[in-house]
Amino acid sequence: MPTDQPEDALLTVSGLTAGYGTSPVLHAVDITVPPATLVALLGPNGAGKTTLLRVISGLLRPSAGLLRLAGQDVTRLRPHRRAQKGLCLIPEGRGIFPSLTVGENLELQVPPWMADAELGRVLEMFPVLGSRMKQVAGTLSGGEQQMLALARAVLARPKVILVDEISMGLAPRLIDRLFEALTELAAAGISMLIVEQYVQRVLEICPLAYVLNKGAVAYSGSSDSLGRDDIAAQYLGTA
Ligand SMILES: Nc1ncnc2c1ncn2[C@@H]1O[C@H](COP(=O)(O)OP(=O)(O)OP(=O)(O)O)[C@@H](O)[C@H]1O
What's a Pfam family this protein contains (predicted)? Predict the structure, then answer.
C-alpha cells in the first residue's frame, strides 16, 4: 500500500511499479524529495533511473503507485499539467530547441504574465547566456546548452527539476560550473532529483541519495553514509 506523504516532503513517489509493455522495470519504488533539496538518484546501467524520471514527469504511466507533489495527487495528470504544477524534466541530451536562438529558447518559456525582470534575474544566474541571446542554440558548446536547458527550466518556476545526466559529454571545468548552478538553484528554493554518472561528485552536492538496483530501491538515506558504506562499491562500482 502506498504510504502517506511525510510532512516535510515536496515530492513523494510511493509503491511505484512501471515498465515497458509486459517488461517490468520498476518494482514498488518509494522516494521522497524534501523542499529546496538536491537528491541524487544513482544505480548501475539499466537500473531504471531514466524510467523513474519518465514516470515522475508523466511521460510513462505506472501500473501501480502514487505520486504526490506539494501534497497533491498528480499520478493521473498529463505531463504538461504536471509541468504547470511545478514538475520539470531536463532529459538526457538537453531539452532545448537547437534551431532557435538562445533568446527564442528563453522567450518561449516565459509565460505572458512574467515580467522581463524575471528573465533578467535568470540571466544573472547564467551570465554566459546573456551575451549570446542571438546565437543559434545548437551552435552553443555542450556546457552552454546545458546552462540554457537549466535556465529554461528555472523560468518555468518549478518546484522540482528532474535532471538526467546533465554532465554527459562535458569537460570537467564545465561540470564544476553546472554543479555550482545546481547548488545555487537549491539555495533559491528549487528541489532536484539528479541522475548522474559522476557518483562521488554528485554526492558532494546532494545531501540525500537513493540507489536503484534492478528497479528497486537498494539504498535511501544521507549521502555521507552512502559514501562510507559498502553499498557504494556493491551497487555503483565505485570501490
Ligand atoms: N523504451 C523502452 N522500451 C523497452 N525497454 C526499455 C525502454 N527504455 C528502457 N528500457 C529498459 O528498461 C530498463 C531500465 O532502463 P533505464 O534507461 O531506465 O535505466 P538507467 O538506470 O537509466 O540506465 P543507464 O544508467 O544505462 O542510463 C533497461 O533494461 C532498459 O533496457
Answer: ABC_tran
**What cell does 109 get?**
518559456
Mutate to test the pocket of ligand 1, among 26, 42, 50 (most ligand atoms within 8 A of CB): 50
Q: Which of 90, 72, 92, 91 has the alpha carbon at shortest distance from 82? A: 72
Q: How many helices (H) and strands (E) does the chain have?
A: 10, 10
- The CA R_g of the chain, rounded to the nearest whole Å, is 17
ipTM of the complex: 0.97
Cα separation, 220 vs 62, in Å, equals 21
Higher pLDDT, 115 or 98: 98
The alpha carbon of 46 and the centre of ligand 1 are apart by a number of angstroms equal to: 5
Q: What is the mean pLDDT of residues 16-42?
A: 95
In sequence order, the 6+-apart residues with CB closer than 8 A to the CB of 20 are 51, 60
Measured between alpha carbons, how far is 17 from 216 in angstroms, rounded to an integer?
9
**E strands along 79-130, which residues?**
87-90
Percentage above 90 pLDDT, the chain? 51
Q: How far apart are CA 200 and CA 221, in angstroms?
A: 15
| pTM score of the predicted model | 0.89
What would the DSSP string read from start to end of 36-62?
T-EEEEE-STTSSHHHHHHHHHTSS--
Instruction: Answer whether residue 126 shows pLDDT above 50.
Output: yes
